[in-house]
């Protein structure tokens, strides 16, 4: 029969591993899912940043790599894993079918990528004032 001290130590280990799971392991898995969703949803004309810090625009998508235009007439081939982030759109892992319809929070009239600041984004990424802001 285990003593009171042994049961207490076992309980401490169980609690410790439970806390470690919720503070470290679970957020890491969530991050991996989000990154995998980002890499699998890459599209032509996406503005991306590579893991080396190079900004560019995707011109062609291959099975394991993408062609990224970094300047006029200059393209480099980058592995999909070398893409650190997509700049021109938001990619999330959705759980509900309602969220996939683009109406996450029940607000009407604003799209998924609509700016909240009252400024409209132009094709080149610059923000312009909207509705009488000058």
Automatic annotation (TrEMBL):
Listed InterPro entries: Preprotein_translocase_YajC
Compartments, as annotated in UniProt: Cell membrane
Biased amino acid composition, Basic and acidic residues: 89-122
Domain of life: Bacteria
A GO CC term attached to the entry: plasma membrane
Region (Disordered) location: 89-134
Principal cellular location given in the protein's record: membrane
Biological process according to GO: protein transport
Membrane association type: Single-pass membrane protein
Protein's UniProt name: Preprotein translocase, YajC subunit
Species the sequence originates in: Acididesulfobacillus acetoxydans
